[in-house]
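Office hours follow-up: a student asked to see two folded examples consecutively, so here they are.
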Amino acid sequence: MPRSVLLRLIDIQDSIREIEKLVASAAFEAFAQSWGMQRAVERGLEIISEASRRLSDDYKAQAPDVPWRQIVRVDISATWNILKEHLPRLAEATVRLIAEENLRERP
């Protein structure tokens, strides 16, 4: 049975929270030098990427300010840019979309 839109959004939200906790007090230099931190962030981004790929384009259009296609790993600088520039908007969008999805799923 495929995962619901709501579960995919929760996967995204959970990954964002954990990534944000991990890098909250880190500077780019510390991130760039920490293999473990980079791998953990990359795994979180993989989960986000996989979940977002499963959302329809029409659904993603409900959050047009999120650069859905850019939320993929390119290199360490791009990863840091995703962390600081794109994840906050994605986090805000998932809060709103989850609330809307919860309203839709209520009988």
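And the second, which I mentioned at the end of office hours:
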Amino acid sequence: MPSSSYAVVAYLDGDLGKFLADFRTAVTPHHTHLRPHLSTLSPRKLKISEDEVIKNFSRNKFQAIKIEAGDVCSFRPASATVYLDLRSGQKSLWELNSQLASGPLAGKSDWPFVPHLTLAKLEDFKDVARVFQHARDRWHDYQGTRSFSVSELTLVREAKPGVWIDLASIHAGD
């Protein structure tokens, strides 16, 4: 059996989380099972047991991080993903990523760490320009808050391609 990938995410709720979920539902309805989130540790395969992964993750301490969403961007040509970059909080997220990626949770990441909020992960590149423009228009019209606080982190495991399950959570200041 191939080893699973693990990642650490901060889920988004409120107006911004609803905006992200609604956009994803409209553009990529086959991905609606994925909750809006900010990855704080990129997916990676680990060489320790799941019990050890959970135990080591649970030992982490962190302070809440204030984040503000920025502009619509794309990872083209590396990936057919349209996302929101971050206007603030990146430095703290990089430090948190380094902390999480050290010791037992160290491993070769499946993707480089780039703090962002995914709007749509498309199957191929043919629709990226159209979805990008649609995202810019929707984001321009969005009237809700563009900021949030990362105060809870959740360790997740990929159960099967594209399906992630929650394993454990920690809170800021714990």
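Two things to take away from it. The domain at 5-168 is CATH 3.90.1140.10 (Cyclic Phosphodiesterase; Chain: A,). Residues 65 and 92 are 7 Å apart (CA to CA).
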